[in-house]
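Cont'd.
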Amino acid sequence: MQTRGSSAALSLRGLSKAYGPTLAVDRLDLDVPRGSFFGLVGPNGAGKTTTLSMATGLLRPDAGTAHVLGHDVWSDTVRAKQLVGVLPDGLRLFDRLTGLQLICYSGLLRGMDRTVVTDRAHELLEALGLAEAIGTLVVDYSAGMTKKISLACALIHAPRLLVLDEPFEAVDPISATTIRQILEGYAASGGTVILSSHVMDLVQRLCDRVAIVAAGQIRAEGTLDEVRSGMTLEERFVDLVGGQTDVGEGLAWLRSSSD
Amino acid sequence: MVALIVGLKWQLLRNGLRRSTPQLVGLIIAVLYGMGVLVAALSGLFALRFSLPSDAARTAITLGGSAVVLGWAILPIIAYGIDETLDTARFATFAVPRRQLVLGLLLSSLVGVPAAVTAILGLATVITWSRSLLSMAVAPVAAVVAVFTCVALSRVTSAASFAMSRRRRGKEALLLMMLLLSLGFGAATSSVMKQISSPGLLQHLADVLGWTPLGLAWAVPADFADGAIGAGLLRLALALVFLVAALLAWDILLRGALENPRATDSGGSANGNKGLGWFGRLPATPTGAVAARSIISWRRDPRYVASVVLMLLLPLGLLLPAFTGSGNVWTLAMAPAAGFMLGWSTHNDIAYDGTAFWGHVATGVSGRADRVGRLVPTALTAAVLLPIYAAISCALTDRWSAWPALFGMGLGFLLTGFGVASVMSVLKPYPVPGPGENPFGAPPGSSALTMVIQAVAGTAVFVVNLPLLGVGMGALLGQVWMGWLCLGMAVVFGSGTLALGTRWGARIYERRSPELLADLSRIR
């Protein structure tokens, strides 16, 4: 028990959450090994965001446990939160702050030293290509810039585990490349990354381990090749999750040639 | 298309209610309140039918009607988006012909409690005008014109204020307008109250209003009842011209919103302030960081700016009686009122964060830092204002001995308000307009819940301060030593409540910060 808890960077056991009658996450078990680059894929509404929120202390589970590097997120909260960097999806930021101020805010909230925070913030802004937007209010940032500044906020305290919910959504290719390089560097130096996405191609290129989630449960989990089992990730995904219907001769009116 | 848009509004209203019970309760209270107003007004209209001179009916209906039109026209300025369920910008991507959109949105505005009440009252004037066949026939026509004028005017003001609020300068102008309106309202009521005794005045006022866009349509049936057919027809024609003009103005504003739906000002960039700003000035602790963030929001977020300026000016409104010569007793209340409002105003602070609050949850910041840090901007404001307000009161009444008592009561209200608010704001945040993005976001029916929470917070602060008020009153009645006692009590008792409140609030915060975040995502 103890060994399992400490060997995994993130360990979820029997995690459940219901919204009214709808079961968003259903007794989900998952282990993310240390140093892995982990991709969580699933259709919309599969429970990815709910799972990641419960794993990071943003949403209280109805049942089950979440451990970060051996620390229980829901009883040893403060220690667990110190080890995690979070980038949630669909939540606001304090967007009346400038980019620099927002990063510093995340650091200062964690009780970090001001000079350390400012130095790191400048480095992060430089690395993310946001140096020119340093004094611009976050509310005036583009979608890609907003994702990058959120990533900077998640990295400021040098976490051991990064939990990123849809880090590439609405991000242009150039920003995506920047984010990818930073994440790859982070993982190469021993950090653990878990990200959710429904861009299969990207997960295939980036991650070494993958889990497919549907209807609040893990359908397949393992190394990329184990999960793919000979197909592309996208084929395997559609295969597992189902729901693909043959369009065939329907929607004939949509084809201009039929006119 | 038009029917589709009206149906959409109805659907939105119904689905909104399915989301939560408090909202349903809110709507029921709104309906009950509307019914109360309706019954009272209907019986008034019925009584006017039998009033001896038709002059009384003319005066009452023109005045009342003008007030209703004026209310519809200015309400969107004071209460953001009283009826913006269908935000025009959302239609930008659909190729709806603009004429149909205008008609659809206009008719959809009629779906809702306020519009229904107005429409029923308008049509009920037929009862009043059943004195002659001619006036009875023309009354419903005039009423329809009047009701549409109400709705059209409110759309014009909300579209105009939306267009203005997208620019920084416009925002400031809008704020100023709100302030002048609220101040002007106070002055107007007090002077009307004074002159209500002179009988000719109201009739005279009605005659004037009857020829302004506000009262044109309402005065039409009265002309017909008096046999002045020509004047009545002229009024009706003018009312129609005005209605068309309002619709055209709205059409033009809509064009702006549709062609440029997401244009927001970028004038918000921190000019010249390239560094950390307040984060560099306050202590580099979690509490200091929360405080710095709050101060920045106070300065840059229009929602805070609006409420702060209103809070500052409302106590200043107490100066009005002193200048209109109706005694200056009320000016003594300035410092206590300001202390009360400032302390109490922090009771929903977390709601203004919206889901950005996740930053506090994810970093695991302590409840104490969150609770105490948020109070700092208000505390700084009060530190400047309360002594000055107390001094102004003393200067105007020429009673400097009253200063300790006045300042003491203000301080007591402020500190206990902080204490109560520190607990309240982690218990039940209620909906507020979202930051900048769509200021018309408050869901319908939320106002009743809002009022209940505000009332509970206000009553709690007041009750806790009753002993202090007693001593303060004693001081004002002549026992100077009681003033110093009051100030001392305020310091001891107030800081005690503050310490207790922030500690209790911090405990609740630490226990249920994820639940708070869930609440905030739900009411967003």
